[in-house]
Amino acid sequence: MKIQTFALQCDEIESLASEMASVLTNENPSLLIGYGNTDFPLEALPSIIGDSSLPFFISSSCLGALLCDDDTVSSNCNLALFCVNDESGAYGVGSADISESSPFEAGATALQQALASAERPYESPALIWCALPPGDEESILEGFVSVVGEKVPIFGGSMADNTVSGNWRTVTKTSAGPQIIAVAVLYPSTPLGLSYSSGYKPTETVLKATKVQGRKLLQLNNEQASMAYNNVTNGLIADQLNGGQILGLTSSAPLGKPVELDNGAVNYLLCHPDSVESGALNVFSEVKEGEDLVLMEGSISSLTSRAERVINNAIMLLPENKKPVGVLMIYCAGCRLMVGDEINSMLGSLQKRFSSLPICGPFTFGEQGRFLDGMNRHGNLMISAVVFSQ
């Protein structure tokens, strides 16, 4: 098992083709995962990559991709590549367009394609890694589960753009666009370490979702949802109560769904209020009527320090005799925007803390992962890490 990462900053197709050819010729990866700025010509990549036997997908990331290795520390790569070289493993990528079928069916179809591509019939993968269109992630995850069951961990993130304007997209060997599900199945020859968490802590304030429609909170504690949320956050969205975007404001005070683990500890799956519409709160993940939602709080310091802890937690879950050799990390775009330029200090700290350990990933509009209770979930404002080993 060997991991190589690369940052490509070129804007012209000719220079991009030259750089990509150099990467693929020298490395011959078993799997290629990439993330790039939505302004980058991602659609040109499949023809440039060319090799029909290489499983890959490349997805857009808010304000560019993150990369931290010996040569690069950047939070705004035009294109960052994570290359898995593992001759003894097996890997496959599949895709489907949710505009051509239901999200559930498209999820199942994409995963079935990936499994066929990996050529490991009747064997469950060690990991499913995905890039999803924002909006129906829960249904897509259910589609995955319908194929492989609930025991296979599902990690990844929802595509993002720079302005929440729907300009996100993913490209694979056979498909490209804003409604594409891309999924990779991994059968690595060495163990993986997995961690999924957030950088927020709970307050004592609990709101019950008393009236809900999917991702729209109509009432909290039997009160108009926007008013209830505004009251418990001391007027945080007072200027938007008649309607409007609140994404940046609420990044510091999301809502958390408590998940109790077998050992009695509680994790929180976060739900990010995105806008106010006719008194309702629109959020980026599904809430069930009757659920308790805990008001959470976070700071720039907590969000930048959490990345190191999540990676370290994943490393600690590796067998004692295994050495970490690479990290795929998901970092929420909302957190990225909240911490601002401090993201660069965070990546610099990661380079010092995990020297010679390449770390690559996107800033996403939704995060998929699994807590220690073994259940796969979709959340917001989350951070995850998958650590490869040798």
From TrEMBL:
Domain of life: Bacteria
Domain FIST positions: 28-224
Domain FIST C-domain, chain residue ranges per copy: 225-371
InterPro entries attached to this UniProt entry: FIST_C, FIST_domain_N
Protein name according to UniProt: Histidine kinase
